[in-house]
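Long-time lurker. I teach an intro course on protein structure, and each term I like to show students one example going from raw sequence to a predicted 3D structure in token notation. This year I'd like something fresh instead of my usual example. Would anyone be willing to generate the tokens for the chain below so I can use it in lecture? Attribution to the forum is fine with me.
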Amino acid sequence: MAVAAALTVAGCTDDGEPPAAASAPPSVALSFAPGAAGAGDPYFPAYGNGGYDVAGYDLKLRYDPASGRLEGSATITATATQDLSRFNLDLAHLTASRITVDGQAATGRADKNELVVTPAAGLVKGRAFTVVVEYAGKPQPLNNEALGVGGWQRTRDGAFALGQPESASTWFPVNDHPSDKATFALAMTVPDGVEAIGNGVPGRKDTAGGWTTWRWTETKPMASYLATVVIGQYRVKTSTHAGKPMVIAVPESLPATGPAARSLDRTGEIADFLAARFGPYPFDAYGGVVIDDNRVGYALETQSRPVYGNVFFRTRPNPTVVAHELAHQWYGDSVALERWQDIWLNEGFATYAEWLWQEHVGEQTAQQAFDRTYRGFDWQVPTGDPGAERLFGAAVYQRGAMVVHALRRTIGDEAFFALLKEFPAAHRDANATTEDLIAAAERASGKDLGDFFEGWLFGRTPQPRP
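-- Reply from a regular --
Happy to contribute to a lecture. Here you go:
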């Protein structure tokens, strides 16, 4: 974890003593304790927090590209999952000036990249509560030595917030782990003539005093790392597809009809192709954003509006990467990770979606893609437990796709394509694990697949071709 800048809160001290109970029935014995300073993920124990479950984030922010300063407020609605004396929010490099819990002043202190909040009264298990944090500063990214830079990054004409496995804490207070999904609303105020693109359905734009407020709403629960905002000089094209808004943004630095724009213009077509295989599109909006910045050498499945580095479109259109990120809207976004170890559920199925798309357009069959990948593959890293430093390696993506294809060959097309729809339908707007996928595959096929998955997910030697 990167070191955090100092964070101060007016009147914020913490003596460690549990506060008084809040509206507790006299017959109930309460035992208030602090929420855990981490969600307990085996790969990233410090990510996220315990003691509460977030229902929604509502951000009202203002960003000045000239100074790099971000300021505003975050309103967080949540429910206590224990008798809670205090709780943590993830917040890096930003300074909170005022915190309230249910309208009452709360105290807080900084602890590395955490904001530790002590409400005026203890929060009883099962109680819904609302936190408002007013904060400001110049956001900075987080640098994971093994996985790279993620989070808020300033640009010449704006900024963007993007990254995996962590990003959100660099621009708003958050329970930053995918196991705690929540709805998301953003009102981002920027100077007139600057665009601000976020997740979900676009809302009303207001202009006053040389500033414009852009509004975005994602009403389906979302993992925190999938939240994004992209600020700068963009051509924003808004249309509808299948009765839902589609927003595509390409930077003005790129040609209006160049490879990037032509690739994203196929978003609706590709989403429809995937819907025929995975079931109905799971969100209320479509779209995509291209970032023309050498620091972004990847694409990310930010919910309802994937973000693509222009590296994919340097010389020609690339609808295959669009297929990959759109497949994540089912596998990775609507059905999110419960723990980072299971990232193959995201990347294996999205990579296999590339193979299905390539077969659809006549580039190669899924079997040919499997055969090319299988030849000479290094099996030393297990797909089902790659380790935190190899979250984005070949064992997760390419071998993950081979697992999916081998499963298809093992259970047959009828059961396989039924599974492709049944699994995201069963876990829509929720989380899932490898064990959930195995159980679903066994139900769909009527077969005991324990040995199959043990070998393909965890074996360190080449698996027999199915």
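Some talking points for your students: The radius of gyration is 23 Å. The domain at 1-143+180-194+206-222 is CATH 2.60.40.1730 (Immunoglobulin-like).
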